[in-house]
Amino acid sequence: MALMNNEGEPVTRWWVSKGLEVVRTERDIFTKSKMREARLKFIAGANRITTIKSWMVSSRLIENKRSPREYELTEFGLSIFTNDPSLIKSSTWWAFHLSLCFSEDSEPYPIFFLNLETATKDWSDWVQVIKKTQNALIDLSGKQYKNSTIESLLGGVRRMFQGDNPLAELGLVEINSGAHNSGAVIRLGSPLLSDEIFMHGLALVRFSHFKSRDSISFSELASTGLPNFLCCSKEELRKNLQRISSMSEWQGHFSFDYAVDLESITFKDSCEPNRTLLELLQKGQDTWL
Q: Domain boundary at 170, 188, 206, which?
């Protein structure tokens, strides 16, 4: 879980943008022998260099499949660099967010969203979010993480949605200090959701959970956590997919089918992450709040 090495810190827009630029030409920039050069390029200390690498690996912008010492841009990273090198578009950060949600290396980012309520969007106590995350990661990792470790890691995730950090203006999460200064309370926000966001989320679900299947039930789709990751209720997800499926521009991507007591999704050829990513990056509307 690469995000476990993020030093409990968020990452900035400039660091990610610089990371894409540097890794494209210097695959060994994150090696110990290049630490001095990396600190100069990123204007950051050694711990923050680790933070930058961890967020970029966990979001699948970079990978080191060829060599443990060398990183390179993934297709996702190259698409971001090609279409929005300065990372100023809201669609870029939606892609970043959804990639983290479906990455195998990004816990506790997905659990952070799965532990928040989608239907009523009630406020959750921060201490309880930490406790739920600690319990969930026992099953996923096979070992017990200290409460202080989880609190630090979740703190880094939470700060991605605060201040001038890159995910703050998408409206994914709402945070306040809690009644009577009892501690931070948090809930899912109400972000603007374009059709391209729904479609890219659906494609990521298909290839992360159901790659060998042509169709799934709506209940199976909802169980993947997609409503939480899109910060909407199951009913809102259902209504939007029904609406989108009737539009001519998306009929090559999927169909929403009805049978007795069953609603299902049938995937089509165009429901493929690299394609839906480009549609999101190039056609997605501005959803900054």
A: 188
